[in-house]
Amino acid sequence: MGANLPESPNGSCFHCLQPLPPNGGYSVTVADKQRHVCCYGCQAVAQTIEAQGLQHFYQFRDTSNPLQIPLLPEELQQLEAYDQEELQQQFTHLDDNGHTSTTLSVEGMTCAACAWLIEQQLQTLPGVDYARVNATTERVNVAWHPEQVKLSDVLKKISGLGYRALPFQAATQEQDFKRRRRYFVRRIGIAGLATMQVMMIAVALYFGMVDELDDNLRQFFWWISLLFATPVLLYSAQPFYLSALRSIQAKQLNMDVPVSLALLSAYGASAYATVINHGEVYFESVSMFTFLLLVGRYLELLAKQRAIATASNLVKLLPATAQRETANGDLESIAVNKLTDGDIVRVLPGQTLPADGELLSALGTINESMLTGESVPVVHEQGARVFAGTLNQTQPLRIRVTAVQQATVMAKIAALQDQALANKPKLAERAEKLANQFVQQLLILAALTFFVWTFIEPSEAFWVTLAVLVATCPCALALAAPTAVTGVIHRLNKQGIILRNTDAIQTLATVKTVMVDKTGTLTTGQFSIADVQLEDNVAQTQAWALAKALESHSEHPLAKPFQQLDSKSSVQLTNVSVALGRGIEADWQQTDGNLVRVRIGAPGFSADWHPELNKEADYNVILATPEQVIARFLVTDTLRPDVAETLHFLRQQGLEIIMLTGDQPHNARRVAEQLGISQYHAQCLPEDKLHWVKQTQQQHPVMMIGDGMNDGPVLAQADVSMTFGHAADLARQAADIVAMRNDFGALAELLRATAKSRAILKQNISWALFYNIAIVPIAVMGWVTPYIAAIGMSVSSLLVLVNSLRLYRQPPTPKDP
């Protein structure tokens, strides 16, 4: 190979052709030969070119003018462009740990061994925090420290392994899918046509239809079969050879190694028999094996596309342009990626919101089904938060932009989905390791089979070994876990449920106790005044006005119902003070000019004036002066409409339900009695919730459901945790599952979907193991011909794939959870 590269002039750098320093400079090995370079920079670039397999750069570059020659191949120059900060803003974001992360689309991955190789190699780069590869979606989720490593270094590392990686762009995914589909269709077409022709000849030869013909005519049929099988071997089977070569290079054997060995061996032996006109030919096995394998890969490609379409469709929903208001109130059309925080955009009815923002219009009716899975439009009031990708339904809207591109909720959901697809449950990891180990054992078994059969019947040794290689290929085992996991992620996404941690699929099966927060989880978080008790000498209008005036100074959720009271009376307050978590106190100027101290808040807040309030259990908000209790209010939180039936479903599953809340005991008791919850703990601080979860975890795994910022630690502590789309950022970051649809009933669908996925995953692995173990003695005994082995292996893989596709069916809406 070295002889094909032009030498640099004496005394010149091999890379840049500039003069070498007096000390001779540095040296680098390119094309198996030592080359002299002038500096460390040229040495590093030359090493990269060698590692990337881009030696043709030296072979074909124009060296007539050393001052104008390129110093980097075009392939590497293109990768360097991805280091530009402005370009990276379109596809990178900060992950939960503050690292820069992105999703890469990788071409050429065929199995779990490819994913393992890329993961291991990327993690050797200094500055790469993690790399998670999903062979099913052919994506890499990678996080890195920009000050230590560049994105182009990551792309070059993957390129050096023989794969092509670029930042994932949802807008081009459909084109990529069509190109890859054509890639398989062409190869399937050639293999299919050749298989039909070769099989017609093989049937005639096998069943003695040409016995009466002479040997020359039989050899003629063999040559015809060779003619049809050759393009199948050289063109259609290319994907298997490339994958096998990569795995051998990585010293991590994959399933395409025995496949390639079987194809090349069968073709080579058949071609030799054709030339010498003696022996057996199996061109039909070569063609059929290739055809069936390609059909299986094609169906797998279709399943992958179906699985990742939901996430990619989210990003494609964004419009290319937006209507932005200028300083003088006019409108200008601008590319969405040019919007910045603070811009004001207008969205017409029927148009998609281009960015996250604050609603400036009085009202807006917006369809958020693409984010939450809920088809009923949501009516938002002025000041509400609205999201990119949602659809304006009725009237023109004005929106102040608060987040664009990768900072939008929609982009974060897509990132969560990519993260979920990249993560693998422990059972899936075990299945992948088992498949890789099986390949090594298969090759050893094939060698032993050949050795034994050379003594039993030498003429059959090769064909029996070939049947062993084909029949026992662990394709079904390698497909068993990824297809099932991808299927359940797709199913949950359609229901508006984001699975952040795929280990939750297995963990949910072991959970015995579900602990739930009250406010915002079991209840809606929207409070209302359920009951009022006034003193006999107090007018309702006066009490209403006084309570409304006092609560107007509070941001506590319990204050909102008072601020919405319809009161026409005016009240003058001075010296207002707020006691956090207790209530509000002020001087009330009465109509006669007297100042009276007045308080509203928890019963204990006014207990120093009225000690009997320490025993108050029926009302949770008290309005009082030192002389009298003016009014007692019962402010309650509305239960979610689907909580009772969902909790009934959980009990049917044998789960114990415990409520943890920071609310007062009497409020906790009321909600617990309404929902039939026998065990609850009130007035819980975050550390108290942690205590109860840890204590229960000593007996069995625990699931925690909450939505508040103070629930973040306990959500992280639980074995599996769930929150909602409206939850605080800390809660969403800590939870394993996020229900974007914001209804408690999502828990029932989560349990059903994960239970079904576990069943299908176990069925897939059990079937794959049963087939591979059962077929081994049959193949070793020589009872399976190569073409029957090809059919058996392909059918086994297709069964696993079809079984996993059951997860893609939309589940019927249950009448009773």
UniProtKB/TrEMBL annotation:
<keyword id="KW-0812">Transmembrane</keyword>
<dbReference type="GO" id="GO:0005507">
    <property type="term" value="F:copper ion binding"/>
</dbReference>
<dbReference type="InterPro" id="IPR027256">
    <property type="entry name" value="P-typ_ATPase_IB"/>
</dbReference>
<keyword id="KW-0406">Ion transport</keyword>
<keyword id="KW-0597">Phosphoprotein</keyword>
<dbReference type="InterPro" id="IPR018303">
    <property type="entry name" value="ATPase_P-typ_P_site"/>
</dbReference>
<dbReference type="Pfam" id="PF12156">
    <property type="entry name" value="ATPase-cat_bd"/>
</dbReference>
<dbReference type="GO" id="GO:0016887">
    <property type="term" value="F:ATP hydrolysis activity"/>
</dbReference>
<dbReference type="InterPro" id="IPR006121">
    <property type="entry name" value="HMA_dom"/>
</dbReference>
<keyword id="KW-0547">Nucleotide-binding</keyword>
<feature type="transmembrane region" description="Helical">
    <location>
        <begin position="765"/>
        <end position="784"/>
    </location>
</feature>
<comment type="similarity">
    <text>Belongs to the cation transport ATPase (P-type) (TC 3.A.3) family. Type IB subfamily.</text>
</comment>
<keyword id="KW-0479">Metal-binding</keyword>
<dbReference type="Pfam" id="PF00122">
    <property type="entry name" value="E1-E2_ATPase"/>
</dbReference>
<dbReference type="InterPro" id="IPR044492">
    <property type="entry name" value="P_typ_ATPase_HD_dom"/>
</dbReference>
<protein>
    <recommendedName>
        <fullName>HMA domain-containing protein</fullName>
    </recommendedName>
</protein>
<dbReference type="InterPro" id="IPR008250">
    <property type="entry name" value="ATPase_P-typ_transduc_dom_A_sf"/>
</dbReference>
<dbReference type="GO" id="GO:0043682">
    <property type="term" value="F:P-type divalent copper transporter activity"/>
</dbReference>
<feature type="transmembrane region" description="Helical">
    <location>
        <begin position="462"/>
        <end position="489"/>
    </location>
</feature>
<feature type="transmembrane region" description="Helical">
    <location>
        <begin position="434"/>
        <end position="456"/>
    </location>
</feature>
<keyword id="KW-1278">Translocase</keyword>
<dbReference type="InterPro" id="IPR023299">
    <property type="entry name" value="ATPase_P-typ_cyto_dom_N"/>
</dbReference>
<keyword id="KW-0460">Magnesium</keyword>
<dbReference type="Pfam" id="PF00403">
    <property type="entry name" value="HMA"/>
</dbReference>
<dbReference type="GO" id="GO:0005886">
    <property type="term" value="C:plasma membrane"/>
</dbReference>
<keyword id="KW-0067">ATP-binding</keyword>
<dbReference type="InterPro" id="IPR023298">
    <property type="entry name" value="ATPase_P-typ_TM_dom_sf"/>
</dbReference>
<dbReference type="InterPro" id="IPR036412">
    <property type="entry name" value="HAD-like_sf"/>
</dbReference>
<feature type="transmembrane region" description="Helical">
    <location>
        <begin position="188"/>
        <end position="208"/>
    </location>
</feature>
<dbReference type="InterPro" id="IPR023214">
    <property type="entry name" value="HAD_sf"/>
</dbReference>
<feature type="domain" description="HMA">
    <location>
        <begin position="100"/>
        <end position="166"/>
    </location>
</feature>
<dbReference type="GO" id="GO:0055070">
    <property type="term" value="P:copper ion homeostasis"/>
</dbReference>
<feature type="transmembrane region" description="Helical">
    <location>
        <begin position="257"/>
        <end position="275"/>
    </location>
</feature>
<dbReference type="Pfam" id="PF00702">
    <property type="entry name" value="Hydrolase"/>
</dbReference>
<keyword id="KW-1133">Transmembrane helix</keyword>
<dbReference type="GO" id="GO:0005524">
    <property type="term" value="F:ATP binding"/>
</dbReference>
<feature type="transmembrane region" description="Helical">
    <location>
        <begin position="281"/>
        <end position="299"/>
    </location>
</feature>
<dbReference type="InterPro" id="IPR001757">
    <property type="entry name" value="P_typ_ATPase"/>
</dbReference>
<dbReference type="InterPro" id="IPR036163">
    <property type="entry name" value="HMA_dom_sf"/>
</dbReference>
<keyword id="KW-0472">Membrane</keyword>
<dbReference type="InterPro" id="IPR059000">
    <property type="entry name" value="ATPase_P-type_domA"/>
</dbReference>
<keyword id="KW-0813">Transport</keyword>
